Amino acid sequence: MQFSALSLSPSVLRALADEGYETPTPIQAQAIRPVQEGRDLLGCAQTGTGKTAAFALPILSRLTSAPVDKSRRGPVLPRVLVLAPTRELAVQIGESFAAYGRHTHLAHTTIYGGVSQMHQERALRRGMDIVVATPGRLMDLMEQKVINLSGIQVLVLDEADRMLDMGFIQPIRRIAAALPSDRQTVMFSATMPREIVRLADSLLRDPVRVSVAPPASAPVRIEQSVYMVPRASKQALLEHLVRPAAVARAIVFTKTKHGADRVCKKLHQAGISADAIHGGRAQNQRRRTLDGFRSGRCRVLVATDVAARGLDVDGITHVFNFDLPIEADGYVHRIGRTGRAGAGGVAISFCDHEERGCLRDIERLIGAPIPAITRLPALPPPTSHPTPHPTPSHAPSRAHASAASSPVRSGSAAFERRGGALTAEAKSRPTSGRAPGRFSKRPATRRSR
Ligand code: AMP
Question: Which of 23, 97, 270, 399 is deepest in the core (most CB within 10 A)?
Answer without folding.
Answer: 97
